[in-house]
Write a structure and sequence with these properties.
The complex is a heterodimer of chains A (378) and B (332).
Chain A lengths: L10 E5 L5 H27 L3 H10 L5 H26 L7 H19 L5 H30 L3 H24 L8 H5 L15 H20 L1 H11 L1 H6 L4 H27 L11 H11 L4 H25 L5 H21 E5 H7 L1 H10 L1
Antiparallel strand pairs in A: 1-2
Helix pairs in contact in A: 1-2, 1-14, 2-13, 3-8, 3-9, 3-11, 3-12, 3-13, 4-5, 4-6, 4-11, 4-12, 5-6, 5-11, 8-9, 9-11, 12-13, 13-14
Chain B lengths: L1 H29 L7 H22 L5 H29 L4 H26 L9 H8 L3 H4 L3 H7 L3 H19 L1 H11 L1 H6 L4 H27 L9 H15 L4 H25 L5 H7 L2 H16 L20
Helix pairs in contact in B: 1-8, 1-11, 1-12, 1-13, 2-3, 2-4, 2-11, 2-12, 3-4, 3-5, 3-11, 5-11, 8-9, 8-13, 12-13, 12-15, 13-14
The chains are: A mainly alpha (378), B mainly alpha (332).
């Protein structure tokens, strides 16, 4: 028998068998509070403004007037919609980081329809044509990497990423042609003088359709992922490919189908950008949302309800930082920095919801006898 | 002919920027970590190097050349390594998802860099974009202006020292990964961390070091962009970010081999600049659409390489097996 006893490590990491709701809530709340403190300190430091002004601007940026509330809801709705599109793909462990490209392709297809055929057909025909062509092209844009993944095992993370840049160049081909010698391609409306092809106001709000579609899709995705056979198949394929095959699930079909749906929903966001929100297309349409939505989907654990909360939070933070920077005349990139501080903290806190820290004295009390029994057995 | 030489020169200057990023990412990926934060790290490194040079130039009338070089070089290395440390702490210690953390690091780094650059301009009351001109001359100083060897000199010696440093670094990394015990240990971790752990290798230590050093090397990429390509001008366009993504693409293109990174980065840069020179070389007038299409080529080539590499299924050209997966010792 070896007399030298190995001291137990001061702290051990143990995987939680299941998520503890109380721990999850506390960890996330703590992360948000810490991130908020750090962000506010950073904003105060760079703006040189007092805490009262920074706090006032930060918290009133999204809600102080009706227009600001709408701008806040518009961003949150678009971010959420893209995240909703990414959720099924990520749940299946298909890393679609090409949302930006899919948004652009959908938006471009919408713009192409508006530019070339908007005067030839009535709105009742034009809008469905725009919508369907946008969904199709974006679905296919995501289907291409999915095909190469199931057929040859090509890495979809990098494939979808590269397709973003291809999409950017394709959009530039069209916008450069359309703008001609002008410095930028303006609002599509301006070229023909008719507003045919725009989604009109809904509930008296310009962006009513965007809000409605985003909310609708969130509910539908919740049902799709948690209450349908397709959703179950996605979950099994994501957990283990071999289990899926053993259970008789056609994994290739599931991957292709889900990738198409994922791309199509991102295309829907692109459609809304062009026909309802910005009324134009450029390589910058969608901005950073394609990437931020990836993080929203992941942090929300593919649960549309949680994703809604996260999109609202991140948009609120971004708008708040935006107002502080307006007040102090700073560069707009501070908003991205502040949003990222929140992302880092929330990402970090997932550790505490997935793992448990077991300290030495606690292990002695609770699991000590069990451990000793194990050691004796060896 | 001169247009052709111009293309080669542009490709070598730009290729160096991509090469540093790709070398840093290769080292990181060999340890099993897919760091999509490269564009962020590039911008962070470029900003830190620029800020160090700019502030020191502003603070004294006769800046010491040695200190300028030291400050800007170290600032780029350290600041990017700190970015790598955030990524590392989240993915290695807290086992957060690597793709998501990397993307967050990209938008964080780009945000910090762009904001910092604008903030410096505001702080020192510079109208437009700030410039660290003296530091720029340091990084663009070359042997050809002294020796004057004509065309061979233009092609081979007309670059700042970072160009040669990048090539040396690639060779050193090749030797490190294939000929030293530490390099082999690192590759073992990237392939199968559990086996490496069982063999007594300190997995976390290796991962931290490879990721942070890799991040620091990515920072040199930004330094090169700001000083060697931009001669000390701080620019706020998206070029640096796009080059960072090209660096990520190049790692795949090179099939994770540092020596391939050398010619790969020049090839990528050549394809990138083709649009600017092809008209003059072939004496044709290109429309804007063709320029847009030509700029697509590096990305399309990467996709083709990605697919071809996975179709061929050659074991030597596959990514490290555990790439992108967090390692938790007690998981089976």
């Amino acid at each position: 028998m070896n007399k030298k006893t190995v001291k137990e490590p001061f702290v051990r990491i143990v995987k939680r068998p299941y998520a503890d709701l109380k721990v999850t809530v506390i960890a996330n709340a703590a992360a948000v509070v810490l991130a908020l403190l750090l962000s506010l300190l950073l904003l105060m430091a760079v703006s040189g403004l007092g805490p009262d002004k920074v706090l006032g601007a930060f918290f009133s940026a999204s809600v102080s007037t009706g227009n600001r509330l709408l701008a806040f809801l518009q961003d949150a709705a678009l971010l959420l919609l893209i995240a909703i599109g990414l959720a099924p793909a990520f749940k299946m462990h298909f890393w679609n980081i090409g949302a930006q490209g899919q948004i652009l392709m959908g938006g471009l297809m919408t713009a192409i329809c508006m530019y070339y055929i908007k005067d030839a057909v009535p709105a009742a025909v034009l809008i469905p044509v725009m919508l369907i062509s946008a969904l199709l092209i974006s679905g296919v844009w995501c289907l291409i990497p999915a095909f190469f993944k199931v057929r040859f095992g090509a890495n979809e993370t990098l494939f979808t990423l590269m397709l973003n840049y291809v999409a950017i160049q394709i959009v530039m081909c069209f916008t450069d042609t359309w703008k001609g010698t002008k410095s930028a391609f303006g609002v599509i409306d301006r070229f023909t003088g008719s507003a045919n092809g725009y989604l009109g106001r809904l509930f008296g709000i310009d962006i009513g359709w965007t809000l409605l579609i985003s909310m609708l899709l969130t509910v539908l995705m919740f049902i799709y992922l948690s209450r349908t056979k397709h959703g179950y198949e996605i979950a099994v394929v994501g957990e283990s490919l071999n289990t899926a095959r053993y259970a008789g699930i056609n994994d290739r079909k599931v991957i292709l189908r889900t990738a198409f749906i994922s791309g199509a929903i991102c295309g829907l966001a692109g459609f809304l950008y062009v026909s309802n929100v910005s009324h134009t297309i450029s390589a910058a349409t969608g901005g950073n949302f394609g990437f931020t939505a990836i993080i929203v989907a992941w942090l929300g654990a593919f649960n549309p309800a949680v994703m809604t909360v996260i999109s609202l939070l991140l948009t609120f933070v971004s708008k708040g930082a935006g107002d502080v920077r307006n007040l102090a005349g700073l560069d707009s990139s501070i908003c991205d920095v502040v949003v990222c501080i929140f992302l880092f903290f929330i990402l970090g806190c997932t550790f505490f919801t997935r793992y448990q820290l077991v300290f030495r004295h606690k292990a002695d009390k609770e699991g000590g006898s069990e451990l000793k029994a194990k050691e004796a057995g060896v | 002919m001169s247009a052709f030489f111009g293309l080669i020169q542009s490709a070598i200057v730009y290729g160096t920027i991509i090469m540093f990023g790709a070398l840093g990412e290769t080292l990181t990926e060999k340890g099993g970590h897919l760091n999509l934060g490269v564009p962020g790290l590039v911008v962070m490194g470029g900003f830190a190097g620029f800020a160090a040079g700019f502030v020191y130039e502003k603070s004294t009338d006769s800046p010491s050349m040695f200190l300028l070089l030291l400050f800007s070089f170290l600032a780029a290395l350290v600041f990017s390594a700190l970015g790598g440390l955030i990524y590392c702490f989240l993915t290695v210690t807290l086992k957060a998802n690597q793709n998501v953390t990397g993307l967050a690091l990209t938008s964080f780094g780009v945000g910090v860099g762009l904001f910092g650059g604008a903030y410096l301009s505001k702080l020192y009351g510079v109208a437009g974009s700030a410039k660290a001109a003296v530091t720029g001359t340091l990084y663009t100083a070359n042997l050809n202006s002294v020796l004057g060897w004509g065309i061979p000199g233009d092609l081979l010696l007309s670059y700042g020292f970072l160009t040669y440093l990048a090539v040396v670094l690639a060779v050193v990394m090749h030797l490190f990964l294939n000929k030293t015990r530490y390099g082999l240990n690192l590759k073992a971790i990237g392939e199968n961390p559990a086996t490496a752990d069982a063999a007594g290798i300190n997995v976390d230590k290796y991962k931290y070091l490879s990721t942070c050093i890799g991040a620091a090397i990515c920072g040199l990429s930004g330094l090169c962009y700001v000083f060697q390509y931009g001669s000390g001008n701080w620019s706020t366009n998206n070029n640096m970010q796009a080059l960072g993504w090209l660096a990520v693409a190049l790692v795949i293109f090179s099939t994770w081999k540092p020596l391939n990174v050398i010619w790969g980065s020049y090839l990528f840069a050549l394809l990138y600049w083709l649009y600017n020179y092809i008209g003059t070389i072939f004496e044709i007038k290109l429309t804007q659409i063709w320029t847009d299409i030509l700029q697509m080529i590096p990305y399309v080539v990467t996709i083709i390489v990605l697919v071809v590499a996975s179709v061929r299924e050659k074991r030597e050209s596959q990514p490290p097996s555990s790439l992108g997966l967090s390692y938790f010792r007690e998981e089976r």
